[in-house]
Design a protein that fits this description.
Strand content: under 5%
Shape: elongated
Number of helices: 12
Order of helices and strands: HHHEHHEEHHHHHHH
Number of strands: 3
Structural class: mainly alpha
Radius of gyration: 22 Å
Largest sheet: 3 strands, antiparallel
Length: about 260
């Protein structure tokens, strides 16, 4: 029933995070320069303006973020196949930036290429989610416990708005917004260790853990609220430098499949 409603919602409207119409110029810069030279309009050696390239990247980025949000909140249904032209029509763009965004999602493991048809949303089971949680715990728990002993309370206080953002998103059932604020909070905590590679790896694992299961595509609001409450409780313990509570909360935070 839930999957049916998600499929219907996504089939009738484009995600709100993407402009209704975004047009991307298809002409390459080389073609534009050759045309200007033929008309005598580009005779100096000034560097070419990268307007078209910037626009292409901007649109692709918007589409990628919208598709990621659709994955999290169930508008892209596990097991379903979506074509780039059809999605592009709903976004008001050509198929090219959609296809590029989908190819990035394929690299991340969110979708798989179906030749001559499009992209199928990956189907995942509880075991894969549990494995991701285990790997995340192996990376994040030791780092958080080390930071709890070395980072001053003032640095933790600066993260309060990020923890509160997860609570606000959970309170209104904004699953896509919660996913972003959740990763932002964890990323800011880990960034205090100064290891950029660790932060990047942890963020990739975190993003993968947020994709819905085939059997339960929509995360319950109650689960979001419980997860967000753990963020604020953890931050309170870190500010108070209560290491025993920090250790308990951090380990408990990773026993589930969310957060």
């Amino acid at each position: 029933m839930e999957q049916g409603r998600a499929r219907e919602a996504y089939g009738t409207a484009a995600p709100a995070t993407v402009p209704a119409v975004v047009r991307v110029p298809e002409q390459t810069r080389g073609e534009q320069v050759r045309g200007e030279q033929a008309r005598g309009e580009h005779t100096h050696s000034e560097p070419p303006a990268p307007r078209a390239v910037v626009q292409r990247h901007s649109v692709r980025g918007q589409i990628l973020e919208a598709l990621r949000a659709a994955l999290v909140d169930g508008r892209l249904v596990p097991g379903q196949v979506y074509s780039a032209p059809a999605l592009g029509a709903r976004f008001g763009v050509s198929a090219t930036p959609v296809r590029e965004a989908m190819q990035q999602l394929a690299i991340e493991g969110a979708v798989e290429v179906v030749p001559n048809r499009g992209f199928r949303v990956s189907e995942r089971g509880p075991r894969e989610l549990a494995e991701l949680a285990e790997v995340r715990a192996l990376i994040e728990v030791p780092v958080m416990l080390r930071l709890a002993r070395t980072v001053p309370p003032g640095a933790w206080c600066a993260l309060r708005p990020l923890a509160e953002a997860t609570v606000a998103a959970a309170a209104v059932g904004d699953r896509a917004g919660y996913a972003e604020s959740d990763r932002a909070f964890h990323g800011a905590v880990l960034a205090l260790c100064g290891n950029e590679q660790l932060v990047q790896v942890a963020d990739d694992l975190h993003r993968r853990s947020q994709w819905p299961l085939e059997s339960n595509p929509i995360t319950r609001r109650a689960d979001l609220l419980a997860d967000a409450a753990e963020h604020t409780a953890l931050l309170d313990a870190l500010i108070a430098q209560d290491l025993a509570v920090v250790q308990s909360l951090v380990r408990e935070h990773f026993t589930g499949v969310e957060g």
